[in-house]
Specification:
- By secondary structure, the chain is mostly helical.
- Helices cover about 75% and strands about 0% of the residues.
- Helix 1 packs antiparallel against helix 2, helix 1 packs across helix 10 and helix 10 runs antiparallel to helix 16.
- The radius of gyration is 21 Å and the shape is globular.
- It is a multi-pass membrane protein.
- This is DHA2 family efflux MFS transporter permease subunit.
């Protein structure tokens, strides 16, 4: 049998094809990015229009995250096997179709189901965006292409909350989801016509990973474990404690089964030997702490500003801009600083600054002043995120072999999303937030004031963990090509340098 020859991608960024590829990947990633940044702003209006209680609002966020976090590694593997462009286009169409269902939802139950379908589309779409860049562009142009992709994505992240607030105040919250449909109608035809295919039958087998074999059982068990634990945490305050306990136990059992399957699988979705790197394991534990706190913070803050402080959706969305703007302006410099002094200090100081910002949010109550109460907290929060996010990604990639960088970033991405969804499910339970809290300002305010110290404590735990366990990875000249961060709720999928193509966790 002939040995497949690895071909170096040859598309130049200045060519027409290169511009079409950039347009396609920016449009595709913008769909998931806008969705992740605007939905929180729309939650109070969704609750009012659909008569949804707190649990329904939690599921509006978490149904999407459960399927996305559980299936994102499998989505990357499907692109490798069947073609990255093909799976990317399927993801775009699927995501748009689910978004249409979200926008047409007659009740909260229908919306939650549509959000879960949207997460499946996101799991197909998200890994493919950067994978197409890695597989298509000439190595000399790849870093610049990824930088442009990241820059435009950052602009989308910055505009997301503002756009979401404008849509909710104007044509209505349904357009938060319906906006994805015209984006998909532009993105999918451009991808089919102008983006070259990669992967599929012409792709060589990646090192040690058999082609054509998918860890479907592992993906199903991972998603099931997340769904069961999230259900138990969300329903415990309102339903039977016995049912919640049994569901939680079943979720833990599914998680144990997932680990056992991954240990014995010939081609696992998440090879456990990657955790042999102490730094990789430590960074992922820090990620769990940090992004659990972030997930809870952004979910509750968007509600606090509207339910308690009386902000309109537009004003609440605009209020959150400083964190994203600070990351866009300074994250690359933070990454360079961490490269000089090592990651230990940034990964310790960053969470502590974020914790301080969350405690400052305790000043935000009825009739809160933006300049005097909200802005100082968000500026401190943004400074902490600037200090933290870029060094975390760079340290993660430097902690594993170069050939596994895409797998490492995919695992980290899934961990961040899983941490966020568990936090959104657990915080109302831990703070005694009742199902009608979003409609009762005093009750919600009291729960918010109990939640912020909890989020801050988780960040302090992450800082202590970083101080105790994170060390400088070996110097080998490697680092992320994408050094600008604009996403505030999950780390970006970062590619490695070099000509190899995407892996199951996104790009390699």
């Amino acid at each position: 049998m002939a040995v497949p020859v690895r071909r170096t991608p040859a598309v130049r960024i200045s060519s027409a094809t290169g511009k079409w590829i950039l347009l396609t990947t920016v449009l595709g990633s913008s769909m998931t990015l806008l969705d992740s940044t605007v939905v929180n702003v729309a939650l109070p209006r969704i609750g009012k229009d659909l008569d949804a209680d707190l649990a329904a609002l939690q599921w509006t966020v978490n149904a999407y995250l459960v399927t996305l976090a559980g299936l994102i590694l499998l989505g990357g593997a499907l692109g490798d096997r069947f073609g990255r462009r093909k799976v990317f286009v399927v993801g775009v169409v699927w995501f748009a179709g689910a978004s249409l269902l979200c926008g047409l939802s007659p009740d909260a139950t229908f919306l939650v189901a549509a959000r879960a379908l949207q997460g499946v589309g996101g799991a197909l779409l998200t890994p493919g965006s950067l994978a197409l860049i890695q597989a298509s562009f000439h190595p000399d142009d790849r870093a610049r292409a990824v930088g442009l992709w990241s820059g435009f994505g950052g602009i989308g992240a910055a505009a997301g909350p503002f756009l979401g607030g404008w849509l909710v105040d104007g044509p209505g919250w349904r357009w938060v989801f319906l906006l994805n449909v015209p984006l998909a109608l532009l993105c999918a035809p451009v991808a089919v016509r102008h983006v070259p295919e990669s992967g599929g039958e012409s792709a060589p087998a990646e090192a040690g990973r058999g082609r054509g074999r998918f860890d479907v059982l592992g993906a199903a068990l991972g998603a099931l474990a997340l769904a069961l634990v999230t259900y138990a945490l969300t329903e415990a305050p309102n339903g039977s404690r016995t049912v919640a306990a049994v569901t939680a136990a079943a979720g833990v059992a599914a998680g144990v089964a997932f680990v056992q399957v991954e240990r014995r699988r010939a081609a696992p979705m998440m090879p456990l030997d990657i955790f042999a790197s102490r730094t990789f394991t430590a960074v992922n534990l820090v990620t769990l702490c940090v992004y659990a706190a972030f997930g809870g913070f952004f979910f509750l803050t968007a509600l606090q500003l509207q339910v308690v402080a009386g902000y309109s959706p537009l004003r609440a969305g605009a209020a959150l801009l400083p964190t994203t703007v600070l990351m866009l302006l300074f994250s690359a410099r933070s990454g360079s600083l961490a490269k000089r002094i090592g990651p230990r200090i940034p990964l310790t100081v960053g969470p502590l600054l974020c914790a301080t910002g969350m405690l400052l949010m305790l000043r935000v109550g009825k009739h809160a002043s933006y300049a005097g109460d909200v802005l100082p907290a968000l500026l401190v929060m943004g400074a902490g995120m600037v200090t933290l996010v870029a060094p975390l990604t760079a340290t993660l990639l430097a902690s594993v072999d170069t050939a596994r960088a895409g797998l490492a970033s995919g695992i980290n991405n899934a961990a961040a999303r899983a941490a966020g969804l568990v936090a959104v499910a657990a915080l109302p339970l831990l703070t005694g937030m009742g199902p009608e809290a979003p409609q009762v300002p005093d009750a919600f305010d009291a729960a918010f004031r109990r939640a912020m110290p909890l989020c801050a404590a988780v960040l302090v735990a992450g800082a202590v963990l970083a101080l105790a366990t994170v060390r400088r990875p070996p110097e080998d000249g490697r680092g992320p090509e994408c050094r600008t961060h604009g996403w505030v709720t999950a780390p970006p999928l970062e590619p490695r340098r070099g000509p190899r193509t995407s892996g199951p966790g996104g790009t390699r």
